[in-house]
Write a structure and sequence with these properties.
CATH architecture of the largest domain: 3-Layer(aba) Sandwich
Number of helices: 10
Low-confidence stretches: none
Number of strands: 11
Strand content: 25-35%
CATH topology of the largest domain: Rossmann fold
Order of helices and strands: EEEHEEEHEHHHHEHEHEEHH
Radius of gyration: 18 Å
CATH class of the largest domain: Alpha Beta
């Protein structure tokens, strides 16, 4: 891991059956970056995020993933001490991953589970610090009035903002966002992307976000990493990504689809 990197991926592969989802991927993420992961469906974007967060193991072999100079996994095995490292990594899912029967407030408080007594979490006996942090995050994202509402009664955009609030209560230093706007309407999607960019720029959080919307990647992220068939085919500034490269990544239909989407 380089001195400035908070996340390091080295020669990581992951195979499902006979299909390589990741094929020798290496990547350094520096503190305070906001990086878009782009690429067609099946290119390995979500697999990479799930591997970084230790939600799945990588293939046995030379692959190593580390975060904050602590091991996450290597040689196909998740490190036994990964729980401590994972408390500093917040994961945002496409389908929000909220507990529908709990209130929004309780869902946001769940972000503190890695730092409090297990039974406090089970019975919802949240410390005062957690309660204060949860309400502050909900207020910041315009959700305070919905704090007592069950999560499954909220809109998709509200739930996703709640999921980001949960990551704040977790005190995450890295946010991994896996297609966080894929199921949202355009207005809600922009609100979520604005929040992620604000957390990056004003709170100094490192953000790694997978996106199908290339225009969002170019608008919100300074660095873009493109995957195709499990390999990194572009890693550089968003401003350096040319239409010809995007057509090579997505196929010849990309240009028409991109400009249609940008016009809506």
């Amino acid at each position: 891991m380089t001195d400035a990197a908070v996340l390091s991926i080295r020669n990581v592969s992951k195979t499902f059956g006979q299909r390589p989802a990741l094929d020798g991927v290496s990547l350094d993420v520096r503190k305070g970056e906001m990086i878009a992961l782009i690429g067609p469906s099946g290119s390995g974007k979500s697999t990479l995020l799930r591997s970084i967060s230790a939600l799945q193991s990588i293939d046995a072999g030379p692959g190593v993933i580390s975060a904050f100079d602590g091991p996450v996994q290597q040689n196909g095995r998740i490190d036994g001490s990964v729980r401590k490292t994972r408390t500093r990594i917040g994961m945002i899912f496409q389908q929000f991953n909220m507990v529908g029967r709990l209130t929004l407030f309780s869902n946001v408080c769940l972000g503190a589970l890695g730092r409090i007594n297990f039974w406090q979490g089970v019975f919802g006996l949240w410390p005062a610090e957690t309660k204060q942090a949860a309400m502050a995050a909900l207020h910041r994202f315009g959700l305070a009035e919905y704090a007592s509402q069950r999560a499954n009664t909220l809109s998709g955009g509200q739930q996703q903002r709640g999921a980001i609030a949960r990551a704040l209560v977790q005190k995450a230093k890295i946010i991994l966002a896996d297609e966080p706007v894929a199921s949202l309407d355009p207005v809600s999607a922009r609100k979520v992307m604005d929040i992620l960019r604000d957390l990056n720029r004003n709170d100094g959080l490192t953000v790694l976000v997978t996106l199908h919307q290339v225009d969002y990647a170019l608008r919100y992220c300074d660095r873009v990493v493109a995957l195709k068939a499990g390999k990194i085919v572009y890693d550089g500034p968003a401003s350096g990504l040319k239409t010809e490269q995007l057509i090579d990544i997505y196929g010849p239909e990309f240009e028409d689809v991109f400009w249609e989407g940008a016009a809506t």
